[in-house]
Amino acid sequence: MQLLKALISLTMVLIASSETSAAKNIPIPQVSGPVPTTPDRGESYRGSNEQPVPGPGLPMPDLERVGYVQEEFVISGTIDGKPYRTSLLVRRPKDLQRFSGLVGVETIHAGGAIPFWGTGREVWAPGGHGWVAVASQRAALENRVKKFNPARYASLYIPEAPAGANGMMASPQDAISQAIMTQVGMLLKSNRKSGPFGGAKVRYLLMGGSSQTGGTTLRYIEQSHAAARLPNGKPIYDGYMPMEAFSATRIEGGDAAVIHAVGEGDFALFRAGNPQMMFSSREDADAPRDRFREYQFAAASHVPTRGRNSTDRPGEYPSQFPTQPFYKMSLLHLIDWVTMGTVPPRGPRLEQTTDGVMQRDEHGNVKGGIRSPWVDVPSARIIAAAPIAPGDPNTRAQQGVQENFSPAKLAALYGTREAYLARFNAGLDALVAARWITTADGARYKSEEAAKPPF
């Protein structure tokens, strides 16, 4: 037993020594700014969409209302001897006395989106947290950021990987992005007075993203986390939230907490072009070096459509499932897990066969997963990924549709509108009690459901 303890102790020393040694080789990039917004420079890029799809460009959020400021910096350094120079967009409390010490970091999506901001837009400011977007992917920098404002960004560049490297998937180009994200983490945790947070103490970093950047986050966990170390051997990134993407290998964050969040529609979307595609699945865990949760949300589509009233097909109705509050609560769980050690709830898995066929109830709604009254007290059959006909683009499967029940079926199921609302509201109360949505969101959806027309 004493020999075993000694071997374990020696192993941990060797690991710490290796991690510290690796940290000594991680340079801190140079930073300049803030870059002003002037008539000749123009405005900074701030994302094309909060969802994992291209969009027309986001308006400037009302940061002043919540006591926040936005600043853009230019960072520069080298990757394997090749120089880079790119954009670092920062949102933080104007009064740094309010700063929590936690920063959410995301690489800008290859399609220009900033989904980690979108997931946390109701989390970052209320919590006093910071948020940073890095143009670390060459595809995003060249095709989105620089085209948004050629004059402002003419001097920015990221080295090109060997010919044929794909900026959307795992590739040499992805490895360059990972290295930049590691250097950015070192910069943020260096707490330099000349840095983006003015010397305020950055204690925790979370990395996250959705869809394409959910994939980059998963690959960073697998390929870079173990070597991404501070000089004291501790991790640069303390937690990860990869969303709406899958890994072919077991997801293990080591000494970082991981919440992997996906919706029912993500399975159908990623299988749309390859019905036999299988995804790595694993159990939830609470071990000190294996803190992991996988949340699978029944009825959630890849791209939320609640509030829309039409699709690209006549007579079809978009899914009204509210995806945002579930992902927002997942982020709140990750923050509490990393900063306070508060253990988040475990989530049941969607019920599917070994070859990936989702199991459904008598109404056609999926079984299993994280439940809600939208599937347990249904007024519609929710199809989390719109069906694709020959000639349709696979992107159609990013959105959900629903088949509303007739008044006769609703009356047969619930009797009266009042009885339906009582059951629906009880379902929302259970969601809040189980910590799947916030109390405020529970009250909001009660109000929205009550405002709908009677049967």
Structure description:
By secondary structure, the protein is an alpha/beta fold. It has two domains: 23-234, Rossmann fold, CATH 3.40.50; 246-406, no CATH class. The chain has 13 helices and 13 strands. It has helices at residues 2-24, 115-120, 124-127, 138-148, 150-153, 172-190, 212-223, 264-271, 324-340, 373-376, 407-414, 417-433, 439-450, and strands at residues 30-32, 68-79, 82-93, 102-107, 130-134, 204-210, 239-243, 257-263, 285-287, 290-297, 317-318, 380-383, 401-404. A ten-stranded mixed beta sheet has the order 1-2-3-5-4-6-7-8-10-9, sandwiched between helices. Strands 11-13-12 form a three-stranded antiparallel beta sheet, with no helix packed on it. Mean pLDDT is 91; it is low at 1-22.
Give the tally of β-strands. Answer: 13
* Element-level helix/strand string: HEEEEHHEHHHEHEEHEEEHHEEHHH
Radius of gyration: 23 Å
Q: At the third CATH level, what is the topology name of the largest domain?
A: Rossmann fold
Mean of residue pLDDT values: 91
Net shape:
globular
Classified by CATH, the class of the largest domain is: Alpha Beta
Question: What portion of the residues fall into strands of 2 or more residues?
Answer: 15-25%
Structural class estimated from helices and strands: alpha/beta
- What is the share of helical residues? 25-40%
As laid out across the biggest beta sheet, the strand order is 1-2-3-5-4-6-7-8-10-9
The helix count comes to 13
